[in-house]
Amino acid sequence: MSDHLIVADEEGVRVVTMRRPEKKNALTQDMYRRMSEAIRSAQDDPNVRCLVITGGSGVFTAGNDLDDFLKAGTDQSGAPRVTAATDFLYALAHNQKPLIAAVDGLAIGIGTTMLFHCDVVLASTAATFSTPFIQLGLVPEGASSLLAPRTMGHQRAFAMLVMGQKLSAEQAREAGFVNAVVPPGQTEADAMKAARDICALPAEAVAISRKLIKPSPDELIARIDQESKLFGERMKSQEAITAFTKFFQRKKG
Questions:
Q1: SS in 3 state form for 172-199?
Q2: What residue ranges carry the coiled-coil annotation (predicted)?
Q3: Which residues on adjacent β-strands are paired with residue 102?
Q4: Where are the beta strands (DSSP E) in the chain?
Q5: Residue 117 falls within a domain, yes or no?
Q6: If DSSP codes are grouped into helix, strand and coil, which group holds residue 37?
Q7: Is residue 224 part of a domain?
Q8: pLDDT in tens, 104-147
Q9: Sorting pLDDT into bands at 50, 70 and 90, what band is 72?
């Protein structure tokens, strides 16, 4: 549904708000498509200087809507899976505008891995971060296997991506992928302040400097495709089938 995502421009800042509270902002294929378009259309728009992604107060996103995700299927050819979710990751990899995330609550799966593409991440004390890919018999995605170790170091990245360790907002700040921890309900206001501060800087200098300090889009896309191919293979594995069966049995119970 279109009302599950709100895109609004305000004084040089494009705010992308996930708004599906009854499902903890779980992401559907349509939401991914609309987020991709919001990011891509900003690239050649000089009026958009900065992007903010938020889930509103109380939650960021519970990650993939698993029912919708499974219906999307996998590519049977053995090539990288090009789903709406993968296309969203491509949009993040090619994004040239400063990107800020306001996280107030759950950030699960891609809700956490997308943060490694952000330039500023603000989290409330109620925020938690988890990547339960292995528990579902899958592998990390979103180039997180590349970006997380660079940000957190190998050991912390292994604990989160492989062991499934959940991090609090303060632990995420200590790990290096959260800039600041603020009271609940304050993340959006602080994100907008950070966005305005960035908008006040010389635009070309910001763009060049951002490009210098981030991995190249080609490097990110190569890792996204590698992960995606393995992810698709794992979706058909007995481990994943068993894990998903148990998950949906618990959900029905």
A1: HHHHCCCCEEECCCCHHHHHHHHHHHHH
A2: none
A3: 54, 122
A4: 5-10, 13-18, 50-54, 59-61, 99-103, 106-108, 120-124, 128-130, 167-168, 180-182
A5: yes
A6: helix
A7: no
A8: 999 999 999 999 999 999 999 999 999 999 999 999 999 999 99
A9: low
**Residue with token string 């998903």:** 244
**pTM (global) more than 0.85:** yes
Phi and psi, residue 184, nearest 5° = -55, 140
Show the domain range for 57: 2-186
Name the domain count of the chain: 1
Record the tokens describing residue 108, joined without a space.
């699960």
Chain centre distance of CA 158? 18
232: exposed, middle or buried (Cβ count in 10 Å: 0-12, 13-18, 19+)? buried
How far is 153 from 151, CA to CA, in rounded Å? 6
DSSP state of 46: T
- Tokens coding 75: 């590519």
Predicted local confidence at residue 249, as pLDDT: 82
